Amino acid sequence: MVALDLEFERYLGTGSFGSVSLFKYKRRRDGETLYAAVKTSGYKHAKSLYKEFQILSEFKGCSRIVQCYGNGVKQRFNDKGYVEYKIAMEYAAGGSLSNFVDRFKDRKLPDSMIREFTRMLLEGLATIHEHGYVHCDLKPENILVFPSSVYKNGAWRSSYQLKISDFGLSKRDGDTKWWHPRQPFAGTPIYMSPESISHGEIGKGLDLWSLGCVVLEMYTGKRPWWHTNYELEDLMKCYEPLFPRNLPCDAKLFLMTCFAFEPHERKDALTLLRQSFFHGDANKFTKLQMNAKIDNPDDFTLQLEKLSMMLSEIRTMC
Fold first, then answer.
1. Residue 258 is assigned to a structural domain of this protein
2. Annotated catalytic residue, options 30, 106, 111, 137
3. Among 20, 40, 251, 279, which is most exposed with the fewest C-beta within 10 angstroms?
4. Which residues bind ATP (predicted)?
5. Separation CA 283–CA 291 (nearest Å)
6. Phi, psi (5° rounding) for residue 145?
7. Is there a single domain that holds both residue 112 and residue 235?
8. Which of 56, 74, 90 is the last residue of a domain?
9. Contact present, 221 and 106 (Cβ < 8 Å)
10. What's the structural domain count of the chain?
C-alpha cells in the first residue's frame, strides 16, 4: 500500500513521539478512495517507531490490534531537509476512545456499551500477552474506534469496534533492562499500576490495572483519581481509584480484580473474560447458581457456602 500515491488530507494529532496525519489513495482494482493514518517521527524518536512497526508486524490479522501497512519504516526528507520516519496504518474514522466519549453527555458511556468495549479490549490484551508483550500505556488516547453498521431487527444500526494502538512504549513481559532511576516507569502515570511506579515491574498485571482505569473512566466520564490531587506516593501505597456508588455490583467486582494489590491477583485477560460482568449482572448469576440441579447433599452444602460468601462480598461493595 505504501507504494501507492498517498495524498495528504489533514493532521489528526500530535503525540509524545511525533504526529499522525490522514492520507488518501485510490485502490488500483476499482479506483475506490481509501484512507490511511501515517505516523511520523523525527530522528529522536525513530527507534521507538521502528520498534512499534516490528511489534505491529507480529499482530497482522489480529482484529483487536491496529494494523500497519507496508514492509517497514519509510525514511523521507521533509521540506526543511531533515529526515522523517513514517509508518502507515489503518485509519480509525471514529478517532480515539478519548475523542469518542466527548460526544456523550458528561463523557459517560451507556452500561451495555462499556461492557462490550471492555470485552474487546480484553481480547486485544489477551493477544498482546500471548505474544509475550506488555502494552505499558493503555489509555483512551491509545484506543481507536472503528465505526460500522450492523443489520439487526430489520434496520441498520451503528456499531463500533475498538482496537489497541501505539506500541512505542511496549516491552517484553518481565523486562527490567530498560529501568533507570531517572525513568522509573514506562507509561502515563495516572494509568500505571503501583508495582510499575514503585520499582518498574513490567507484567501483564500492569495492563489489567490500566484497563480498570479505562473502564472506570468510561463509567464516570472523568480521569482516574479525579477525586483527589494525584500523587505518585499514593499509588505506591496501593491506593485505588474511587468507585462511584451507583456502579453495578458485577462492575465493582470486575474493577476490584483489576485493582488487586498483588499483580497475580488480577488474573489474566482470558480469565477476566469469564467474569459475570460480561454475562449478566451478579443477581442473575446467583439465581442461576440457586436453580442449578445438585444431586449430592455435600455438593449442595458446598454450593451454599460459596453462594453465601459471594453474596456477602457483593453486599459489602454495593
1. yes
2. 137
3. 279
4. 39
5. 12
6. -110, 125
7. yes
8. 90
9. yes
10. 3
Q: Would you state the pLDDT for residue 178? A: 61
Distance CA 233, CA 42 (A): 34
Binding residues for ATP, as ranges, are 39
243 plus 106 within the same structural domain: yes
Residue 305 domain-assigned (yes or no): yes
Joined together, the cell numbers standing for residue 264 give 497475580
Q: How many CB atoms lie within 10 A of CB 225?
A: 20
Cβ neighbours of 233 (radius 10 Å): 9
Annotated binding site: 39
Question: What are the φ/ψ torsions at residue 89 (nearest 5 degrees)?
Answer: -135, 165
DSSP state of 190: G
Q: For residue 298, indicate whether it is catalytic.
A: no
pLDDT of residue 282: 40
For 227-281, how does the pLDDT look when each residue is reduced to its tens digit (9 = 90+)? 666 666 666 665 678 888 899 999 999 999 999 989 999 999 999 999 999 985 4
Any alpha helices (H) in the chain, and if so which ranges?
46-57, 97-101, 111-130, 194-199, 204-220, 232-236, 249-258, 269-272, 282-291, 297-317
Q: Hunting for cell 453527555 — which residue is that?
A: 105
CA atoms within a 13 Å half-sphere pointing along the CA-CB vector of 290: 10
Q: What's residue 55's pLDDT?
A: 96
CA–centroid distance for 20 within its chain: 19
Cell triple for residue 121? 479490549
Please state, in angstroms and as integers, the Cα–Cα distance from residue 106 to each residue in 31, 140, 146, 197, 244, following that order: 42, 16, 22, 30, 14
**Are residue 217 and residue 69 in the same domain, yes or no?**
no
Q: What local confidence, expressed as pLDDT, does residue 234 receive? A: 62
pLDDT along the chain (318 residues), means of 10: 73 85 90 93 93 96 95 91 94 96 96 97 98 96 91 79 94 75 70 84 94 96 77 65 89 95 94 90 39 46 46 45
